[in-house]
Amino acid sequence: MSTLFFIRHGQASFGRSNYDRLSERGYEQARVLAGHLAGGRPFDRIYTGTLQRQTETARALTDLYQDKGLVPPELRRSEAFNEYESEAVCRTLIPRLVKENPDLEPLAAAMFEDNRAFQTLFETVMQRWVAGEYRTPGIEPWGRFKARVNNALDDILAEDGRGRRVAVFTSGGPVSVAVQRALALSEEACLQISWQVVNASVTRFKCTPDRIMLATFNEHGYLEAAADGLVTYR
């Protein structure tokens, strides 16, 4: 049986021109996370998505391995572990939502300055997108997103499902899809879980080539112990 660690990236640069890079707090989260992970047995394999915030978080660990004189496993990058296109979903679908319900227009105007306004609109539009009510050319549907994550997970289980220690540096969406698979959750529950995944948190699974079981969800005590303000969700 293997242990599979699904790890969310550190905080991205929300509201900045390049959202995908880690924020200053995100870099600190990644360093604290790396110190926590490096205290255990080294990973046999490390996977990461291709997004900058994911690879930067993974690099904090591989750099620490090297500082300790260890040879880290090569990072295996795969677009399958990239997050769904939340920016594209919001940019394209929130105007449609506001057009259908003009009462939401003040929230849309304040969404990048007011966290509550953003979360209200984001949750509403995401629920519609997951339910398949909004389909737009150029935006990956929820079902296709889930399929690519699960297909990549199948590949890991087939190759590393016995006696291995495997890390996957990814995002909240793929973490929630893996939890959904392990617990046979509904789509709504999967979406709700994705909003609870802390930046730089760890969710562990026990797995064999044909089975995956949830061991722990959303570990982040090392962030709380390191400094105030390191626990973030966005």
Write the layout of secondary structure elements.
Layout: E1 2-8, H1 24-37, E2 45-48, H2 52-67, E3 75-77, H3 86-100, H4 105-110, H5 115-130, H6 142-160, E4 165-170, H7 172-183, H8 187-194, E5 202-208, E6 211-219, H9 221-226
Parallel strand pairs: 1-4, 2-3, 2-4
Antiparallel strand pairs: 1-5, 5-6
The gyration radius over C-alpha positions equals 18 Å
CATH topology of the largest domain: Rossmann fold
Assign the CATH class of the largest domain: Alpha Beta
Shape: globular
Instruction: Say how many strands there are.
Output: 6
Mean pLDDT: 90
Alpha plus pi helix count: 9
Strand order of the largest sheet: 3-2-4-1-5-6
Q: Level of helix content?
A: 40-55%
Amount of beta strand: 15-25%
Q: Uncertain segments of ≥5 residues (pLDDT<50)? A: none
Amino-to-carboxy terminus distance: 33 Å
Q: Structural class per helix/strand content?
A: alpha/beta
Along the chain, the helix and strand elements come as EHEHEHHHHEHHEEH
Architecture of the largest domain, according to CATH? 3-Layer(aba) Sandwich
CATH superfamily of the largest domain: Phosphoglycerate mutase-like
Main pleated-sheet profile: 6 strands, mixed
Number of domains: 2
